[in-house]
Records
---
Amino acid sequence: MATTLQKDYKERIVPALEREFNYSTVMQVPRLEKIVINQGIGAATQDKKLIETAINELSAITGQKAVATLSRKDISNFKLRKKMPVGVRVTLRRERMYEFLERLIRVALPRIRDFKGIEGKLDGRGNYTLGITEQIIFPEINIDNINKLMGMNITFVTSAETDEEGYALLKHFGLPFKNAKK
């Protein structure tokens, strides 16, 4: 079953981008390929329960089971051993990706205090990473059960060739950028 953003992409965004960038076929139009949500938890070296909590919270937010990310090497200054859990991540595709994007745009971002929009800096290949400082902006998280505020990075991976195309795609999806390009 297609979500409203998925329908919106096919019916409104594709033709708009086709006109804006003069594509010769529909296949040239950039699309959102995946959304990767990542939480780095440095304090997990001391407190193992933080990883479990983060997995449960990220799974509740995304509707998909989160996995722990493991360290690659030993760093004695940080009391870190190889293959220790140091973070949590989820990769969303297809319907779940569109559902998460819709909740992020319509529910979570407006709940940020003093929200004036998000930065419009892409990575040079049409992908965008959004940093969020608190997980409590998502309605799935019960504030009473929080023992530590943790931030997260949300990366939007697109098939766009340039930053300009990626920016236009994300803008059409409804991401509230504060500095309007052009």
---
Amino acid sequence: MRTGADSAEDVHELKRIRLEKLDALKADGKDPFAVTKFPVDAEAAGIKGDLAAFEGKTVSLAGRMMSRRIMGKASFANIADGSGNIQIYVKRDDVGEDVYNGGFKKWDIGDIIGVSGFVFVTQTGEISVHASSVTLLAKSLLPLPEKFHGLTDTDTRYRQRYVDLIMNPEVKDTFTKRSLILREIRSFLDSRGFMEVDTPILTPMEIGAAARPFITHHNTLDMDMYLRIETELYLKRLIVGGFDKVYEVGRIFRNEGMDTKHNPEFTTVELYQAYTDYKGMMDIVIEMYTALAEKICGSKVINYQGKRIDMGNWTKMTMTEAVKKYSGCDYYSWSDDAAARAAAAEKGVAVPSDATRGTVLAELFDAFVEENLIQPTIIYDYPVENSPLAKRKPEDPAFTERFEYFINATEFGNAFSELNDPVDQRERFEKQVENKRREDPATTAQVDYDYITALEYGLAPTGGLGFGVDRLVMLLTDSGSIRDVLLFPTMKPLPNEN
């Protein structure tokens, strides 16, 4: 049987008992924490997956004891290792009186043990290991929770991810897939000639972008520094320097709100390619996301939170087309900014008193369009007002060569034909910082003039793409919250309890 505890009082008492057992082991010269290694040569999944290769052969494996049935002179137990779980059969006459009665029977559920023995199949057909020796490798001082599986208290699961992983194998599967997704993204980009690089996490200034940074202080330099809110400007410096295809899998930090789609620290991939544009980035998105769905989920068609998503079928619309389709408002019918603001008012959408046509278009998109984009959709040609780093469209300078893509009414990534005109970029940065200082007089936002200097040396025509890894993992693992795909999501600490 497996014993556990639910109440704090039970846990405290069981911990006291286990500490007494540990003291007794140490007094008897059997301190489990003195063990430094164990000769593991097999795993549970490998044995169960290839019985023909293992049956009758001696193996050594180790793991956490999850359950035990004591039946007099023999016992069955289940141990879990990094690959899965397997049953072991422990007989007094095989392991010895002292080990069986004085050790194994007194060990606790949750203890980590090593087992050597031969592989066999029980009469009920279960693949097992008949132990010739068992060794206590580490003592568990806290009992595993009796009803942890299916526990509705997700807060506890996120705070104690180590227990969540022990008790819920499907959680481990999610993070195994996360690792595979990152590996496949890297493989996809590497195979296309991109080079992975690292850029600074600590930056010397707050830039004018809307995201609020975390601030720290460098003692030696006696200056405030900022945790990065993007990797873009450093990566494009590398394109200036002559690396034509670069990417970074980077940790990003934003001092903003938290919900099911946002965590203060998260992972992005940003990539930049010289001599292409945003349409080249569209091709990469469609090809990569389709390949990832097939690799991770086994099909282009996946299920996410009860919805059927076809990752092999992408729709493309300009922002003006999408707004007209879902709101009925035609950007090109607005004669001026005032007419645009009037159209927004008719639709019940509040916009600033000085809103331009482009600003109104973006507000209408947020109000009417995004919620309808369930299947993979690329929305392109964004107003210049909200695209400070994108190149203007030559045939219509009110718009930029930018796109975002949406799945299940959620934005997954953002791409540009990168702005490489240093004069235009300087003007946009200065306007961006001016606006930020007007909205927040306490801000320390500055223009990154070194980046302007880099552009003045010449940035080739470049396509750039950035996307969130966490949302992608949510999609491909059918996870409803970003906290489900972060091993250690940001949590407010609880008072210390002993």
---
Amino acid sequence: MSSVYVFAVLIISVGALVYMVSKLKFHAVLALYLATLLLALLVGTPIEKIPGMINTGFGNTCKSVALVIFLGSLLGIILNKTGAIVKMTDCLVKWFGKKKVLWAIGTSCCILGIPVFPDTVSLLVIPLCTNLAKKTGISMMAFASVIQISITTSSLVPPTPGPVAAAAALGLPLGVAIPWGIIVAIPGLIATVIYASTLKDRQIPLNEAFLENAEDGGNSTADVSMSFAKAITPVLLPVVLIVLQTVSKVVVPKSYFAKLMTFIGDPLSALFIGCFAAVFMQARGWMHNLDIRDKWINAAVIDCAGPVFITALGGSLAAFIKSAGAAKILAESIVAAHVPGIFVPMLIGFMIRTATGSNTLGVATAAALCEPMLDILGVSKLAAFLAMCSGAVAFSHANSSGFWLTCSLSKMNFNQGFRAIGGSTAVSGIACSVFTLILYFAGII
């Protein structure tokens, strides 16, 4: 196959994926499956081998990410149901004070974006922000803008599906992906809060439905007296354990501690410990509560099903790219054009995210396309991971469900939403991408 044909095939396949999701409104799972079939046929895969290769790519990816995504989803549900999210946000607002309330909300949403899906963060935090907007006089546009920082950590830091998929596809340990993802997310947080501050005087009507009931007082498991330490420990504990596993392998590789951390610091074990800690520390009467022991887990299974299938089908797409040698041809063409390899995963993540409205799909697709190219592009796994995840932060607009969710809850029209949500995600994505490029060209990653 010539490089021109390879370019054409990838453009057609990715273009078909984008068109099906953004224009025809196909579910991303169906769109990915059809795009994979199209790519398989265009690269000349024998038709009798296509089903087997789809299953193999799907299964190989699924076994690496499915349980991690499920446990991450379950942790987010527990934090929601127990009131820990409200507690974290409330404490941070008190500590930062009214004058720096945007920093408090931004920091809270940055933390919440690690185990909780961005749309869920918006659902949980917007009622609180509506009341804060009334008390402080800061525009709801500014609060809606700063809430979007959850998309940044959701795109960069496992265990949310996008970065989990990318790390699995690239063979990057989560113990490496998590701390570096957090580091690169920090410039995004700073840039988002600064941008949101420019909107604080642009007043809009508040959502009256939230002004009388900012917190979920009907939740029988919520503990209003919970301390901040109890609220945040289940979020930080898995991160610490996973990082310790990686550190122990380097510092004391043959010790008993390293062997122990290989087990409890594995992402599955660490996230399970985090979930158990959340239930044990936060949920009242959990031993006798059927909702906790059954319904919460059912909800997590349902929530994670879509992301798991999207991620696994990304593995199927990658299988055909590898088998046809398309990635090698494409990478060699990019190198011959003297384009720095770091821009490839970044631009792919950005284009898929912008076109489809899904940061998960942007990261997962970029990982599937770029993993076979890395050796030729001369880009490390870590650099590629941070590049594609940073690119997929930007930007939310009319084709994103989260865009309309935040607009409707915040009582913003399209123009106001585009400025608040689109602007903040664009600024955050640029900040994270620039910082990634600085780290890359400085030889750090």
